[in-house]
Task: structure prediction
Amino acid sequence: MAIKAYRPITPAQRQKTTEDYDQITTKKPLKSLLKAKKQQAGKNNQGRITVRHRGGGVKRHYRIMTYNLPKGLTLTVEEIEYDPNRSARIARVKDQNGVYYYVLADTKMTKGTTFKTGAEAEVEESNRMPLENIPVGTFVYAIELKPGRGAQMVRAAGARAQLMAKEDGYATLKMPSGEMRKVLVSCEASIGTVSNIQHQNVKIGSAGRRRRKGIRPTVRGVVMNAVDHPHGGGDGGRHGSGKAPRTPWGQLTLGYRTRHNKQTNKYIVRSRHEGKRK
Result:
């Protein structure tokens, strides 16, 4: 996969790059696996903005993904498709009974390839099985946090985790963030790396392209008035010198911990911040 650059006939195209779409085999999604997706514009059911800088963008249909495939299937990849709702490519697959599913595509999936699910599957690229059946050192994606719940971790474009150890009923995984985390060996995972590995290198290049993605402009606090932001106000000189950066609501924002899930702390062997500490 490669990044495509444009001839600089406009200022935006001088910077803009896109992914290549060579892996994609069809532009038409399967109608039975689509559903309408309403634009919420970052607002809750009371109409209040809970996520800032969202709104507009092109209309999309949601592809009904299957993160918890039944066991004992042999699936054939029918098509590799673009999904506007995620960074990775998706695969339209058909099982031996003629049932269609949408699953995350990995880097090895192409039209016509087959893969298997369940504990009896061979240790091969794309196959899905419990972690206890996967050798230590293997790269995996689409990992379950709890057995039977379906893939919840490592689903973004180019993501992969490495199985580092298996001990006392738990598998230790090195996550893409650098975190070392334990999950039960009965949790399932797929072998390989999520597709579209060049996604992180794409430059959006123009404001209009960002708006079509549903992302509205972000205004810096230091250019606001004091009534609108803790960083605002002043005479045009230095802003808030000697004060720690804050959110628009006055909360500390640099180095401030936002994780409050103490129940799962015991499963984190090594924090993703560990190497950054001095």
Notes: The mean pLDDT is 90. DSSP finds two helices and 17 strands in the chain. The domain at 219-278 is CATH 4.10.950.10 (Ribosomal protein L2; domain 3).
